[in-house]
Amino acid sequence: MSRVTITINGRAETREVEDRTLLVQFIREHVGLTGTHVGCDTTQCGACTVHLDGRAVKSCTVLAAAADGAEVTTIEGLADGQTLHPVQQAFHEHHGLQCGYCTPGMIMASVDIIRRHDGMLDEHTVRHELEGNICRCTGYHNIVKAVLDAAEKHRAAHAVAAE
Amino acid sequence: MYATTYHKPRTLAEAVALYESSDEPTYLSGGHTLIPTLKNRLAAPQHLIDLRAIPELSGIAVTSDTVVIGAATKHAAVAASKEVKAAIPALAGLAGSIGDVQVRHMGTIGGSTANNDPAADYPSAVLSLNAILHTDRREIPADEYFQGLYTTALEPGEILVRLEFRIPDIAGYAKFRNPASRYAMAAAFVSKHRDGHVRVAITGAGNEGVFRWTEAEERLTENLTAKALDGLAIDPSRMMGDMHAPADYRAHLVTVMARRAVQNLGGTHIV
């Protein structure tokens, strides 16, 4: 057993957990934040994507003990009260989901992509960088539209901020 | 996953001492092969010794002759490094083609090289670029390092600390991926060294893991064009055959990837 402290969505969470505990289990079962989903459990589908110290990772393939002291953002940490994060809003407006199972991971991956590229994205790049997130419903079309729209709004917002 | 005990040593000496004093220990780096293996209960180490907090294993240093990369450096960091992109663009491109974004944010060059998966990308660059592998106790030349599937010259408890790549005149990497797993079904790393020699390393295809295709090297040292490879075939009995691709298909892919690597010297061609 290890005493692990991970700051999740700005709140320090300390738990005594077995060393084999995965980050996704820490988030879902120990802290009770079930927005992060487990899809394949084999590092392929990306449903469990969270941000670990600011970078998108698959939380089914990180040990909680290895994340001791780290900062994690999950899907629950994106919205500002009742106001959706711009990427959440774009997925809503473009209907970038059907069953919704992959959506938390898709959105966390998309936020990471938009930030790393400063919103400078084209369709090819979005499709390439979403390779680690599998959706079995949508055919990806509306997901890509949502990410491109959110990226454009990110650029516009930052252009305004720069002025 | 079976129960295990996690350790995070801060020094090489502490890591080696933990390894030597523990029953059934294993080193952990990015964990993107090891953790899935543990979850499937295909391995059951009693102690996991995480190497990522050891300072000697981090950092990228580029000189006029070499690129030296700490073993715990993540694929995303190699792919994004301006210095690596300028010195050996094919190496940065290779790193940026591994797995997917999330995998590249965790997986490490040392972990991949120590694991020596027959479909991994990095072993081809290490072998083609004639890298020197610095461990906690010695230096191992690439030609002596790779010893078959998942097998290397590393002794039990030995830690890969950093990888020293010679900067070539030019290099190229071409890969044909399995569309589901995104592992290489065949990939070629071709580099022309400053002494004029060309080294061709093939990954994803050989039934003994990464290997040098010496017949192609001889032709390309004479004439570094794709045309120089015309008519050159590789024996399918040296190739892996599985549900994704039979051996004769992989043998064909090797010739195509070698040509594409030559046609894309100074970069990569990934499909």
TrEMBL record, chain A:
<dbReference type="Pfam" id="PF00111">
    <property type="entry name" value="Fer2"/>
</dbReference>
<dbReference type="InterPro" id="IPR001041">
    <property type="entry name" value="2Fe-2S_ferredoxin-type"/>
</dbReference>
<dbReference type="InterPro" id="IPR012675">
    <property type="entry name" value="Beta-grasp_dom_sf"/>
</dbReference>
<keyword id="KW-0560">Oxidoreductase</keyword>
<keyword id="KW-0411">Iron-sulfur</keyword>
<dbReference type="InterPro" id="IPR051452">
    <property type="entry name" value="Diverse_Oxidoreductases"/>
</dbReference>
<feature type="domain" description="2Fe-2S ferredoxin-type">
    <location>
        <begin position="2"/>
        <end position="78"/>
    </location>
</feature>
<dbReference type="Pfam" id="PF01799">
    <property type="entry name" value="Fer2_2"/>
</dbReference>
<keyword id="KW-0479">Metal-binding</keyword>
<protein>
    <submittedName>
        <fullName>2Fe-2S iron-sulfur cluster binding domain-containing protein</fullName>
    </submittedName>
</protein>
<dbReference type="InterPro" id="IPR002888">
    <property type="entry name" value="2Fe-2S-bd"/>
</dbReference>
<keyword id="KW-0001">2Fe-2S</keyword>
<dbReference type="InterPro" id="IPR036884">
    <property type="entry name" value="2Fe-2S-bd_dom_sf"/>
</dbReference>
<dbReference type="GO" id="GO:0016491">
    <property type="term" value="F:oxidoreductase activity"/>
</dbReference>
<dbReference type="GO" id="GO:0046872">
    <property type="term" value="F:metal ion binding"/>
</dbReference>
<dbReference type="GO" id="GO:0051537">
    <property type="term" value="F:2 iron, 2 sulfur cluster binding"/>
</dbReference>
<keyword id="KW-0408">Iron</keyword>
<dbReference type="InterPro" id="IPR036010">
    <property type="entry name" value="2Fe-2S_ferredoxin-like_sf"/>
</dbReference>
Automatic annotation (TrEMBL), chain B:
<dbReference type="InterPro" id="IPR051312">
    <property type="entry name" value="Diverse_Substr_Oxidored"/>
</dbReference>
<dbReference type="Pfam" id="PF00941">
    <property type="entry name" value="FAD_binding_5"/>
</dbReference>
<keyword id="KW-0274">FAD</keyword>
<dbReference type="GO" id="GO:0016491">
    <property type="term" value="F:oxidoreductase activity"/>
</dbReference>
<keyword id="KW-0560">Oxidoreductase</keyword>
<feature type="domain" description="FAD-binding PCMH-type">
    <location>
        <begin position="1"/>
        <end position="170"/>
    </location>
</feature>
<dbReference type="InterPro" id="IPR002346">
    <property type="entry name" value="Mopterin_DH_FAD-bd"/>
</dbReference>
<dbReference type="GO" id="GO:0071949">
    <property type="term" value="F:FAD binding"/>
</dbReference>
<dbReference type="InterPro" id="IPR016166">
    <property type="entry name" value="FAD-bd_PCMH"/>
</dbReference>
<dbReference type="InterPro" id="IPR005107">
    <property type="entry name" value="CO_DH_flav_C"/>
</dbReference>
<dbReference type="InterPro" id="IPR036318">
    <property type="entry name" value="FAD-bd_PCMH-like_sf"/>
</dbReference>
<protein>
    <submittedName>
        <fullName>Carbon monoxide dehydrogenase</fullName>
    </submittedName>
</protein>
<dbReference type="InterPro" id="IPR016167">
    <property type="entry name" value="FAD-bd_PCMH_sub1"/>
</dbReference>
<dbReference type="InterPro" id="IPR036683">
    <property type="entry name" value="CO_DH_flav_C_dom_sf"/>
</dbReference>
<dbReference type="InterPro" id="IPR016169">
    <property type="entry name" value="FAD-bd_PCMH_sub2"/>
</dbReference>
<keyword id="KW-0285">Flavoprotein</keyword>
